[in-house]
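Anyone opening a protein record will find just a pair of labelled lines. A complete record is shown below as an example:
=====
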Amino acid sequence: MKTVILAGGFGTRLSEETDVKPKPMVEIGGRPMLWHIMKLYGSAGFNEFCVALGYKGDSIKRYFLDYSTLSGSLSVSLSTGQVAARQRVVDDWTVHLVETGLATGTGGRALRMADWVGREPFMLTYGDGVCDVDIAELVRFHRRHGKLATVTAVRPPSRFGGLVFDGDLVAEFTEKPQIGEGWINGGFMVLEPEVFDRMKHGDETRLEQDVLEGLARDGQLAAYRHEGFWQCMDTLRDVNLLRGMWDAGTAPWKRWE
């Protein structure tokens, strides 16, 4: 099963980083967010990716062109220019880097992947969020329910401490709890190829409003409730939070060795 990653947006809310690079190339622990997402899928045995490029997509191409060459140690002969790789450790991935236009909508980018995906189920996610979801179990859930699409439902963490009252006293204080009722689409979707038929507006198709809303109305959208960790990367505060977790060795999304 192939994984489509939407990596073409402008990332305007993170302009401190995205003035010079696309949002999925913002680094966490010296690796771009895109790599972290792919490692999550790769650790579950899903190793073929279709990356939808747009804004500054050339930097994503350069990263993967250099990925194998620059990994591990190198021996360079200065007289001949020959390079020999030593102790090369690379991931066994196939990565399709697909130009999908600069201003294309999220659904339009997915639609441009139809020929790459073929008429088979596929996974789709955004290029700016990580979580500790069990990808293999997500796929099994999707197959059991037999719907056209499954989204991973998450409850984002609150930015503030939570209070439980006992009259005028605080009975319980919870530091930055998960929001109790605020389930949202956290990405990490599984889709049947028939979903492409619902992308009626070509490049202008919006995945959320034009596709997922219609699937929900038709009873064709399942939700895999994920109670664990999830974090998007919308602001510099989010970036620093993720970097702090990685540097401290406490990154919950790191499901690989």
Q: What stands out?
A: The two ends are 23 Å apart (CA to CA). The chain has a mean pLDDT of 91. The helical segments are 15-18, 33-43, 57-70, 106-111, 114-117, 135-145, 207-217, 236-247.
